[in-house]
C-alpha cells in the first residue's frame, strides 16, 4: 500500500476542518433564525450543510456535540473575562464586569438559549453549562469567606447560601433580561445587579439584635 504523503495528510485535515466548520455554521444559522435546538434534527443539518450522515458522524458523536463545540468561542470569552473578576473589588467594578458579561451573552444569545434548553434534558450539555457557573460560585464563596475573615462582611452571613443565590440567581436574571430588553437598559441592569451583590452580601449591614 502506498504510504500517505504529507500533502495528502494536510489535504485530508483541511477537508475535515472545513466539514466541521460547515456543520457548526449550519447549526448556528438555524439557531439564529429562531429555531429551537430540540426541533432541529440531524437530518435537517445534513440537508442544510450538504453532507452525508456518515460524514457527519465521522466528525460528531451527536447533535449535542455540535452545540458544545459551537460554544467554544463563548467559553473562551467568558474565561478571559473571569480572569479579571474580583467580586469584592467595589460596586463600580462589579457593574463593569456584569455589563461585559451581558455584551458577550447578547453576541451569543441564540447559542446560549439552545444550551439552556438542552441542559434540561441532556446531561452532557448540563455538565458543560454548569461547569462555568460552578467556578464562579466557588470564586464568590472564597471571596465572601475572605471578606468575613477580614471583618468586611458580617459573620452572620451564610457564605455558601449567599454565593449560590447571587451567582446562580444572577445568571437567571441576566438571561431573562436579555430576552425581554433590547439592550437600552444593559448599563442600568448591570449597575443594579452589582448593587444587590455588594449591599446584599459583600457589605451587608450588620444585623442589629434587639431584646
Automatic annotation (TrEMBL):
Keyword match RNA-binding: no
Keywords: DNA-binding, Transcription, Transcription regulation
DNA-binding region, residue intervals: 41-60
HTH tetR-type domain: residues covered: 17-78
Record bears the keyword DNA repair: no
PROSITE patterns given in the database record: HTH_TETR_2
N-terminal signal peptide: none
PANTHER family per UniProt: HTH-TYPE TRANSCRIPTIONAL REGULATOR BETI (PTHR30055:SF234), HTH-TYPE TRANSCRIPTIONAL REGULATOR RUTR (PTHR30055)
Name this protein carries in UniProt: HTH tetR-type domain-containing protein
Annotated organism of origin: Streptomyces osmaniensis
Amino acid at each position: 500500500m502506498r504510504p500517505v504523503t504529507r500533502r495528502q495528510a494536510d489535504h485530508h485535515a483541511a477537508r475535515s476542518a472545513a466539514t466541521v466548520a460547515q456543520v457548526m455554521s449550519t447549526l448556528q444559522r438555524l439557531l439564529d433564525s429562531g429555531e429551537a435546538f430540540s426541533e432541529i434534527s440531524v437530518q435537517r443539518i445534513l440537508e442544510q450543510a450538504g453532507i452525508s450522515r456518515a460524514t457527519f458522524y465521522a466528525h460528531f458523536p451527536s447533535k449535542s456535540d455540535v452545540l458544545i463545540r459551537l460554544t467554544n468561542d463563548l467559553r473562551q470569552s467568558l474565561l478571559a473575562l473571569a480572569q479579571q473578576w474580583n467580586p469584592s473589588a467595589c460596586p463600580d467594578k462589579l457593574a463593569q464586569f456584569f455589563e461585559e458579561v451581558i455584551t458577550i451573552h447578547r453576541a451569543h444569545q441564540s447559542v446560549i438559549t439552545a444550551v439552556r434548553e438542552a441542559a434540561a434534558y441532556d446531561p452532557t450539555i448540563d455538565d458543560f453549562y454548569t461547569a462555568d457557573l460552578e467556578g464562579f460560585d466557588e470564586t464568590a464563596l472564597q471571596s465572601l469567606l475572605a471578606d468575613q475573615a477580614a471583618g468586611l462582611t458580617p459573620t452572620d452571613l451564610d457564605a455558601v447560601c449567599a454565593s449560590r443565590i447571587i451567582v446562580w440567581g444572577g445568571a437567571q436574571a441576566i438571561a431573562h433580561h436579555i430576552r425581554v430588553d433590547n439592550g437600552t437598559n444593559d448599563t442600568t441592569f448591570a449597575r443594579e445587579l452589582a448593587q444587590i451583590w455588594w449591599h446584599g452580601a459583600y457589605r451587608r449591614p450588620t444585623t442589629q439584635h434587639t431584646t
